[in-house]
Structures are given as C-alpha cells and as structure tokens.
Amino acid sequence: MSSTPSTTTPTWHHFEKKVDEVKPSKTDINYLVMDYLVTNGYPAAAKKFAAEANIQPRADIESIQERVEIRSAIHSGDIQTAIEKINELNPQILDENPSLHFSLLRLQLVELIRKCTSSPDGDITPALDFATSQLAPRAPTNPQFLEDLERTLALLIFPSENLAPSLASLLHPDLRKEIATKVNEAILQSQGARKEARLRNLVKLRAWAEQKAREAKKDIPDHLDLGLVPDKTNSDHDHDAGTNQNGNSEDAVMTNNGDVDPMVS
Question: What is the pLDDT of residues 122-131, one digit of tens each?
Fold first, then answer.
C-alpha cells in the first residue's frame, strides 16, 4: 500500500484575497508615479515616464531643475552655492525659516571643518571665522542652535578617527541628505505645492492603518509586504541599470547616492 504525497496548496488569507480584488486605475497609478518623480526632483525620469505612459505632467518639469541643482550642491558639500541658488530662487525661503537657514550654515561649517582637518597642518581659521560671523550671532536666539553650534565646534577638538557617535554623525553623508530633503520641502511649500509626494503620504497612511489594525487585534497576516523593495535576485540587474533608471546622470544625484529611498526602507 503506497502513500501519496500531500498536494495541499497554501490558501490565501482572506485579507490578501480582498486586497487582490482591488483593481486601481492604471491612470491613477501613473499619475501617482509622476507626482512622486516631480515632487522628489527627477526631471529626466519624469519626462521619460510621461512619454512612455502617454500622460501630461501636472507641473512644469523644467522648473524641477532648480531644485535638482540645489540638492546636488548640498549632496556634494557645496553649501555656499546651494544657499546662493536658494536666495536666487526665493530669498524669503531662508528669511522666513531661521531653523532651516541655521541648519544650512551649520552644515557649511561642518564642510569647512572637514576640509581644514583633513591634513595634520590644516588651518582652522576659516572655520572659526565662519562660526564667529555666521552662526554665533544666531545661536543665542534658540537653545537648540547653541547646542548644535557647540557640538559642531567640538569636531575641531577631537580627532576624526575617534569621534563619539553624536559627533561622527555630523560628518556622515546622511546629514547632507537630511538637510537637502528639508530644503526641497521648503522650496515646494514656498511654491504652493505639497512638501511630500502623495505616494509617501499613502505609505505612511498604510503603516498607520496596519498599526491600528494590529492594536485592535484584527485578523490580518503576520507580515504585510508593501512590495516596494526589489528582490535580492534582481539587485545585481538593478544596480547595472541604475545609471539609466532616472534618465541621466543629473537625476542619479537625486537617488540618495544609490541608497534605498527612506520612504520604503
């Protein structure tokens, strides 16, 4: 008497079945993608996507280039150029946002310190002069400003290879990315646009809804995959195609140097 192997196939959770029944409009999805590309500053990719999806962008794609240039300058550490371009675009952006202005100036001080401490005989005078003239007058207006300035100046005291985590983070590229994102949002807000793409808002709403469902002990799967992070098996192919995914090298600057977008990480 022979036994037959089980051919039972896994059944979908009823929640997954309900999700599969939802059929969003392809047009809505296309405009959602376009909104993300425009808001986050991928002009070449937006142009290419508009042509392939046969849709009309709801914003002037050429105007994105100003934000691209500003964020590119910040990502490369050229903060003075970024500030000048922001003021050329709209001087009120920094005038009406002292916190953002101070963050940019502090980042500029970090870049000066990085430069003067890169060699044993580096001259720290430019960094001290900049801190005295640009940040010191602003520091007393806000306790956080004063704390940030003191912490930044500590980089001149301790060797870069032996910094505490709180100081080492100032020299990490993530600080540039963080400030660049805030600048991008401030520019969008000054132009009467949303600070974040609709897709980001939807992801946040989805995370909030899942949290509330679990708190209420709703019957949902143990793990709900967004499906936004590519499989590891495709990572090599995606890396090879990375230089073309955004249309050109200018858009590549906007991909956080190849890191996974914070929205989906």
Answer: 899 999 999 9
